[in-house]
Structures are given as C-alpha cells and as structure tokens.
C-alpha cells in the first residue's frame, strides 16, 4: 500500500508466558463502576446504565515494569487502578451470557487522570477528553490469557504508591461485571479483536508526583510496577 506518510506502529501489550504480543485497537473505559468511588467523587453510581469514555490506543505504556511520563498542563495527576480486559472476538449486541467467550485475557492498569482539567470540564459541561485521553494515560501490565487463568470474578484489586496502600477493593463489588460491560458496550459500538476495556476504579484515588513508584495488583493474576518521571 502506498502510504503518503509512514504508517504508525500498532500499540502492543506483551502476553505473559510467551513471546507473543496483543495488538491494541481501541481503549474503552467505564466510569463510576464502584459505588464508593462514585461517592468520593461527589456522584451517585447509575446502576441501570454504565457511563463510557475512550482513550487512544497509543496511550498505553505496556509491560510489567513501566516508566510513565508526568503529563503537561496539570498540577493534579490522579491514579485510578483498574482490571483490564482484552478482547479476542468482536461483535455487536453481544448477549451477556456469551460475552466472556469474546475475552482473550486480563491485566491490571491505571486510568491516569488530569483531575484539575476534569473538574474544570465538569464545571462547564465540557467533554473529559483532555483530562483522560493524553499520552501515557493508560499504563497496563502484561496480559494473562483466560485460557490459562479462567475468568476472575473475585480478586483483590490494589494500588500501592511508595509502599503505602492507596486503593483496595474486590472486583466482585463492581456494579457492572465484565460480561455486562461487554454487553452494554456492544450496544453502542461494534466491538473488535484488539479492543481493551478498563473496567473502573474503586475508592482511594489520589495524586501522583514525579518520582513516585507504584505497584498495581489484580489478585494473583497480574502485577504492574512503575515510576512517574
């Protein structure tokens, strides 16, 4: 194919236990999927209809140990630890009872947020893109195939920053579990292989500074270590 400019590289995530990589197509995120996090943000979780937003695929920083650049235009960068779901199959109007058949595997990641920009956008009724969809805003661990680990429904999701525990919850307390998220997303978009889903964060979000080190864990499934520079 005769591109007029060099074609951009496809963002990829390593697959644990192999030399294979997972190509990322899109990143979907769900907001307010843990009631206590919604409460700490001054909101009420909607248990009938999930709230979605997106990040660009090249926002990922992938691996089990990562270096994450502190973004410009903010004085209040926040961490949000999340279970990450990678899809191997797509489709639209996917039935919830078949949704897990579309999942390739699982990891743990951070939905980094320029909280001051988000607050300003909320106050004006503006979109959140500048607060959520910036470079390096989606660190993620290696993916662990569901074929090897199954589909976790109860696992402790934690984040330590500089050895201090910041966030701690069980994914069983998500308002919308993975199957429901896939089902709801597929009513709005035609999902495809390579799509990632960040499944929401529990309470305890707080600021990160340059030099901070973090460890995100999804039970015994996945671990992500990193540093903010």
From TrEMBL:
MF annotations from Gene Ontology: hydrolase activity
InterPro entries: Fumarylacetoacetase-like_C, Fumarylacetoacetase_C_sf
Domain Fumarylacetoacetase-like C-terminal: 27-228
Lineage: Bacteria, Pseudomonadati, Pseudomonadota, Gammaproteobacteria, Lysobacterales
Pfam family, one: FAA_hydrolase
Top-rank taxon: Bacteria
Organism name: Dokdonella ginsengisoli
Keyword Hydrolase attributed: yes
Protein name: Fumarylacetoacetate hydrolase family protein
The keyword Transport appears for this protein: no
Signal peptide: none
Keywords: Hydrolase, Metal-binding
